[in-house]
Structures are given as structure tokens and as C-alpha cells.
Amino acid sequence: MTRAEHDLILIVDFGSQVTQLIARRLRESGVYCEIHPFNALDDAKVREAAPKGIILSGGPASVHDAGSPRAPQAVFELGVPVLGICYGQQVMVEQLGGKVESGHHREFGRAFLTIEEAHPLFEGLADVGSSELVWMSHGDRVTAVPEGFHVIGASTGAPQGAMADDSRHFYAVQFHPEVHHTPNGARILKNFTRGICGLSGDWTMAAYRDEAIARIREQVGDRQVICGLSGGVDSSVAAVLIHEAIGDQLTCVFVDHGLMRMGEADEVVELFKNHYNIPLIHAEEQDLFINALEGVSDPEVKRKTIGKLFIDVFQKYADQIDGAEFLAQGTLYPDVIESVSFTGGPSVTIKSHHNVGGLPEKMGLKLVEPLRELFKDEVRALGRELGLPDAFVGRHPFPGPGLAIRCPGEITREKLDILRKADAVYLDQIRKHGLYDEIWQAFAALLPVRTVGVMGDGRTYDYALALRAVTSVDGMTADWYRFDHDFLAETSTRIINEVEGVNRVAYDITSKPPGTIEWE
Ligand code: XMP
Predict the structure, then answer these.
(1) Of 159, 169, 187, 231, whose CA is between 20 and 30 Å from 50?
(2) Does ligand 1 have an atom closer than 6 angstroms to the CB of 406?
(3) How far is the CA of 67 from the centre of ligand 1 (A)?
(4) Can you point out the beta strands (E) in 43-94?
(5) How does the average pLDDT of the chain come out, rounded?
């Protein structure tokens, strides 16, 4: 386990889709933590980690399933505080001699937890007898707490919704304090880590930066690294961080796949080559990508085609750099979580993100991914820490496969051209109205349908365009942005007047879930 001088909270992952959010909330309060899958831990490893506290995550299993996950027994023998969340509560109950019942009282979504007792875990929350809004997601529930425990909070579906054994410092909740839908959840986690476990909250972005630099130096030594630069915040922050660590042992490769937004390629070259003086290869491979995508309309095939070509192109340029042994990527937590669980636990594939999954053996390059454990807004904080301009780190995310996944159906140069122009007008509108920083991500998608319109005295038969704008905290959930109607009217008029080939504009009012942010 890598860790500098910080006290550690060990998060035992049972495979929940939101385990990463526990880490997120802890870090926000300056607490250093590590997530480890339950099946990669044993008693010896738990002891060796010497955590100051342990959190057991939620997970998809039922404790009654044959072979369902358990926590290493050392978790309960170390003498440090333990907090169980959802499945983590049930595991704790099962392992310590209480009772869990299956199936009859499913509870999903909003629920109210009545505070039954003034307790350090609930410091700063509602008074005894009042309720707290919490977010539940469980099929099983605890029906008898283990000896030594008592109930400190209850909901209708989970009468033992929060429990504590104050002498052993074991605590557990059925709800998920780590999600934003539990408004005081972060406070509960902070009460546990800072209050009950006594951590000082000394983990900051400045500390992360120094540790990341030290780790990069240790991993790379005096060897050469190439970095795939996309122009987005993530790969840019990764590049500047790595450059700070190893200087000109880093060469950036900017693959221009012809799927960039208007003017983006020039901006990237200007910023990195001229402003930062980072060695940069501008790989102009537009034809290679666009030709390979000809006739492809399936989103997963698009993503995989682009992902594979990226690797090929990197290989080609890596071969030209003497002694390049490492490939750096700006892979983030959310990139990882929907493809494979970060910690190797079970998780469903929603989309194949092109920049995860490791490199094929044939490339013979090792990965440097210094942002792999960070969420988007942490990457922004790190970027600021590294001196990147605010306007740059505040840029909306842009996906690796670029405009290809904003052009449902088959891609053509003509369609990409129309999309680029429309997207530029849309973003110009957003900036002009001072809305850019309020919105997490905004873009246009060109739809594979033509619609009939009338302009002047003539009939038009042109493409329909969808506008998307979302608010989000981490890209894992999102809501559509409420533009005022005048803004939408002005934007639609501008796009149709200024962009030949579009005669209809629609606004996407789907949240995530059930939609995703990108259209493909
Ligand atoms: P979805 O569409 O899955 O997107 O809701 C969540 C966030 O991830 C971005 N995204 C990607 N980023 N490579 C990336 O680097 C990808 O393949 C990719 N696909 C989606 C998306 O723009 C949004 O911010």
C-alpha cells in the first residue's frame, strides 16, 4: 500500500457502484483513504495497513448468497472504529452474530431516518426525534442487532437503520451517506473520520501533488514517457504534473483524430508547445480515423475502433522516441468505474471508454496514470495547484472519442463539419450569457435525421440538431440544465441562421440516469 505520512482510513469495497463516492467525501474533508476490494484483503494485509478507521462499503450481494463476501476478521479485531454502510452493515451484523432478513422490505431512493439518540455519528444533524433525509438502496435488512449494539436511527423500511456499539467503536447504517441525495451524509462521514477516528484532515491537493510527483519519479526513473494529450483537462493536468516530475523525459503526443471541436487542435499545440515548452508531437491522423469509421454506426464499434487506432498511433510515435517505456494517460475514476470496477469487483459495462483497460502486451509500454484515483473536480483542483489558468482547468469535459459519439449513426466529414460549426455557436452563446461555469458540460449532437423546414420562400430538408447541457458533480449522475426560454430561442435562431445544413434544434431534457451525458 502506498501512503506517505497520512493517517489512513481503509475502505473495504464489496462492489457497490458508489464505493468511490465514499473516498470522494472523505477526501473533501481532508482525510486520506484507500479503497481495497474485499477479495484482495486478508487479516495480515489489514493489520499491515494499520488504518485509523475502517469503512465497509455497500455491494450487490446478499449475505445469504452462497459464497457472498465477508470482511477479513481482523477488521473487527484491530481495535479501531469501523463503519458499515448498506451491505457493509449487513456483513457486520452477520459476522458479529446479529440477524439479516432477505427480500421482503425493499427500499430504494428517498427515505427518512428518525434520529433515535444523540450520538457522535449524528453530531450537527437533526435533533433526537426529528428526521433526516437519506438515500436507501437495499433488498435485505437487519432484523436483530448483534450483542453490544443498540439502534440510534430508524426508517420505515429499516427499523435498525443506524446502530452503534460504542464500547467497541463499531457503527453501521443501512442508508448511503456517501451520495449527494443524503444531504447530511458528508457530515456523518466526517463525524466518523474526524470525530470518532480522530483524524486531523491533513490530506490536501498540495500533498497529493507532491506525493504524485514522487510516485512518478519512482516509477519512471530516468526513462522516457510519452503522454497522450487530448486537449481536455485530464490529459493536460496529467501532462503538466508529469512534466513537473520528470521534465523533458516526457514527450506529448497529440493525436488529431479529426473529431475535435472547432479550433481545438491549434489551441492545444499553442498551449503545450509554445506556452509550456513541453516536447509535443502533433500527429495529424485525421484521415486514418475518419476512413476507419466509414460505414460504422454502432456506438460500441465506434468507440472500439477509435480506441484501437489510438493505441496503434501511439505505438507508431512511441517507436520514434528513443527509449520510450511508459505511456501516460489522464484516466479518471469515473472513466474506470463504468467499464470495470476500479477495485476488480463486479460492475456492469455501460460504455467502453477508450482510454481504460490497459495496453495490449504488444505495445510493450507500461502505463503511468497519475489521476486514476481522482474525480473531475479534484483534477481541476490539482490543475490549479500546478498553476494552470482557471479558464483552462474550468473547461467542460470532452470525451476521448470526440465528436464521433456526438454524431449518432454513420459519421461523414460533412456531418462533422456541420456539428463543429453548430457546437461553436452554442458554446459561444453559453459564454456570452455568462453560463459556462454554471454548466458542467454542454455540447451539440447532430442527429441522423433530416427534417422539413421553410426558410425564406423555400423548403429545406436538413439535419436536426440536439443541444445538451447538464449540471453534475462528478459525471456519474447529472441533471439537464434549465436554460431560460429566451436563451434557447436566441440560440436556436442563431444556429439555424449561421449553420448551413441544420434546420431544426431540439433541447435534451434527460437526466443521468436514465440517460447518459453523451448520446453514445
Ligand atoms: P456518459 O456519457 O457516460 O459520460 O454519461 C460521463 C462523462 O464521461 C465523458 N466520457 C468520456 N471521457 N473517454 C473520456 O475520456 C470516453 O470514452 C468517454 N465517454 C464519455 C463524458 O463526456 C462525460 O463527461
Answers:
(1) 187
(2) no
(3) 34
(4) 53-56, 82-85
(5) 91
